[in-house]
Amino acid sequence: KKATAVRTDATDEIQKKSLFYAAEEDLSLAIFNPAFGYSGRSIDMDSEYFEKSWKVSCFGGFLFGREALKRMVPSGGGTIIYTGSTAALRGRPNFAAFNS
Questions:
Q1: Which of 2, 40, 63, 97 is the most exposed place for a label (fewest CB within 10 A)?
Q2: Which pLDDT does position 61 carry in this prediction?
Q3: CA 44, CA 40: separation in Å to the nearest integer?
Q4: Nearest to 9 by CA among 56, 54, 43, 50
Q5: Which pLDDT does position 39 carry in this prediction?
Q6: Which of 95, 100, 86, 82 has the alpha carbon at shortest distance from 37?
Q7: What mean pLDDT comes out for the span 71-84?
Q8: How far out from the chain centre does Cα 15 lie?
Q9: Does the global pTM surpass 0.85?
Q10: Looking only at Cα atoms, what is the longest distance across the chain?
Q11: Do the bridges between strand 79-82 and strand 29-32 make them parallel or antiparallel, or are there none, so unpaired?
């Protein structure tokens, strides 16, 4: 088996489809780790700023998982791992967008 790290725009559906189209038929592991961290207080944050954070983590995670499943289910299964920073789980002050 081999592992390959690939960097793509998490919010770009075409890039996600291309990523998994290029994957080998026997894909058994896919790891989603969006690399960013929008900080800021909710009271000071505009909706566009919040939406960028949401789009990378939530929407990007959906696209990633869906395309990974399309590869894994026909071959009998696999593992999809979503990972990130614990700051998103702790709900730290000044990380309102990231916490979502």
A1: 2
A2: 92
A3: 7
A4: 56
A5: 74
A6: 95
A7: 91
A8: 12
A9: no
A10: 48
A11: parallel
- CA of 43: how far to CAs of 18, 36, 46, 49, 95, in Å? 38, 21, 8, 12, 11
- Tokens 């081999």 belong to residue: 2
Mean model confidence pLDDT for the chain: 84
DSSP string computed for the chain: ---------TT-HHHHHHHHHSS-TT--EEEE-------B-GGG--HHHHHHHHIIIIIHHHHHHHHHHHHHTTTT--EEEE---THHHHT-TTBHHHH-
Assigned token pair, 85: 């920073």
CA dihedral 63, 97, 100, 46 (to 10 degrees): -90
- CA nearest 21: which of 2, 6, 1, 38? 6
Tell which wins on pLDDT, 83 or 72: 72
